[in-house]
UniProtKB/TrEMBL annotation:
One of its GO terms (molecular function) is iron ion binding. Its cofactor is [3Fe-4S] cluster. The keyword Iron-sulfur applies. It holds the Pfam family Fer4_15. It comes from Kribbella steppae. SUPFAM superfamilies: 4Fe-4S ferredoxins. Transmembrane segments: none annotated. The keyword Electron transport applies. This is Ferredoxin.
Length: 64
């Protein structure tokens, strides 16, 4: 599973961090998403799918 984020789309809402705190963080200066790990173990798949689903900017894409 691979995760791709689009920082240009991100609106710094923070839902992804709430859904998957081991995968996403936010920049201190503006809250834009940061990917902590783009090559994920399967046990985090559900959390990342939840993050993608709740992102209001559709800034998270998952590839198998
Ligand atoms: S949920 Fe989407 S818009 Fe909000 S911080 Fe995460 S990537 Fe950015």
């Amino acid at each position: 599973m691979k995760v791709i984020i689009d920082q240009d789309k991100c609106v710094a809402s923070g839902q992804c961090v709430t859904a998957a705190i081991d995968v996403f963080d936010q920049r201190d200066e503006d809250g834009i998403v940061v990917l902590l790990n783009d090559n994920l173990p399967d046990n985090l798949a559900a959390d990342v799918q939840q993050a993608a689903a709740v992102c209001p900017a559709l800034a998270i894409v998952i590839e198998d």
